[in-house]
Amino acid sequence: MATILKGTGISGELAIGCLRIEKQGERVPEYRIDERQVREHSERFLSAKTQADAALGKLKEELNEDGRVQEAEIIAVQQEFLDDPAILSGINERIEKDLSNVESAVYQGFEETILVFEQMEDAYWQQRSLDLKDLRSRLLKLLSGEAEEAYGDKDVIVACTELYPAMVLSAKKNRVVGFLVEQGARTSHASILAKAFDLPLLIQVPEALETFTGEERLVLDIGSAEVLGDLSSEEYQEYAQKLAEVENEKTRLLRYRDMEARTKDGVRIELAANIVSAEEVGAALENKADGIGLFRTEFLYMQSAVLPSEEEQFRSYRQVVERMAPASVIIRTLDAGGDKQASCLDLPKEDNPFMGYRAIRICLNEMELFKTQIRAILRASHYGNVRLMLPMIISREEIIRSRELVEAVKDELRSEDIPFDDRMEIGIMAETPASVVSLPDWLDIVDFVSIGTNDLTQYMLAVDRTNPKMQAYYDYGNSAVLRAIKMICDACTAQDTWVGVCGEMAAEKDWIPFLVGCGVKELSVGAGRINLVKQTLEQYSMVECEDYIKRHLT
Ligand code: PEP
Ligand code: MG
After folding, report:
1. Strands, E, within 49-191: which ranges?
2. Which of 250, 295, 423, 526 has a 20 to 30 Å separation from 412 between CA atoms?
3. Which SS3 state, helix, strand or coil, does residue 260 take?
4. Which residues have C-beta within 8 Å of that of residue 376, sequence separation ≥ 6?
5. How far apart are CA 289 and CA 278, in angstroms?
6. Are residues 287 and 215 in the same domain?
7. Residues in the chain with pLDDT < 50?
8. How remote is the CA of residue 484 from the centroid of ligand 1, in Å?
9. 329-344 pLDDT per residue, tens
10. Domain-embedded: residue 189
11. Taking a C-beta distance cutoff of 8 angstroms, is the pair 451, 445 a contact?
């Protein structure tokens, strides 16, 4: 019987490899030296520091040469930590005054700063403690004279408690094809790097190290967020076949990377990326996204025990906007609730959360919270091309109240001499039945529309999108969903309003011609799907897209 554990899939698709357990948190030797050994231990530290600096410098250079600027920045942060005066003096004092051996001085010298970062409320800074642990482990390896782990000539899946950036960066050279992590976080640098390198990564599998212990072969299936062991040889063969298909498809799609997204008859369709954090912009740029079609900001709230401050939000939005400029970035205001629970919001327990207190309803009820986010978005708008998008709209009133708040915040910023883009567009998501029916009555106060097919399908068909038993009912092809999309697009065309699609349907090969035929100007998908969408677009002319609609709606 196969052993299967569930986790959270972060990047990649599928990996097959032999398990290797990365031991972490091993104790370092700890002893007192005498005064005559101080010099030797200080020199050993200096030498390890110089070697670490050189190795990081080389890595940074290689990444920069490959155009991986964001990954190179992660290494630059580690180099800065290496010269941090507080850490350095902590280590030197331990050797010189406390007469600690160099290994324990390094361990303890970093520990204090790591604890400070771990206790920070801001999720971004909490995650930086992993960079410090990574750097410390590099120094300790150098001090022990241990060579970097050699994994031989087999493909390897590394299982570990925590994933560090260096492990991801050296994956290729060590034939590491995937990572299985007991802890892990979506926004850790290691996760971001795994995404950038498209390495299969499954996190939050707490029993991984006690379940898989030998040299067994494992399968990481990121699509179903599972790790599988003890498979029969027929089952392995099936996965090996699947893996070969995934690899072939990737190679075939590479040729689309530098091409613009166009239909067979040359009509240009904007092809944007959906992101949940600033760190994903690298993948969007690498895949040549035309912009960000959906920045799901609720993940900033979901990662933290306290509400993200205006500064924290501004920093994150600005980073995305600046790096994408002059391309546009659609920042969606908080869309929490439903299946997106954020402990910092302290949302009430509800019997029917998808129909309950969520998204714009929370924001318009807790105006201070909404105002903080709008201030951060408006401030970021100064640094590029921002468009603000409101989720889950069901009435004109909600749009009016949101716009009034934006105007009030603009006045406030003006009085504080804080720059912003006065012409920032304000759009809405069309994802409720109310928006399908009433959109024509709202478009005079809406700058753009993006169709959220994930929720639209759920609400049109009264099918819970998260319920596995309901998957057969959750059908984009149901004529009610297709007609709803057509109605939204027709309303937008009639009033000359830009319309895009940012739900998952935008990346579905079978439905792309339908959406394009309806007149959508933009499709926004996960960065890894961009080439696939280009390939599909190339197969249909506009006339064929329009025929496609007729075939499905008559
Ligand atoms: C949607 O509903 O289609 C959408 C894009 O938003 P989310 O999946 O975040 O609800
Ligand atoms: Mg939605």
Report:
1. 156-160, 176-181
2. 295
3. coil
4. 310, 311, 313, 314, 317
5. 15
6. no
7. none
8. 16
9. 999 999 998 877 787 8
10. yes
11. no
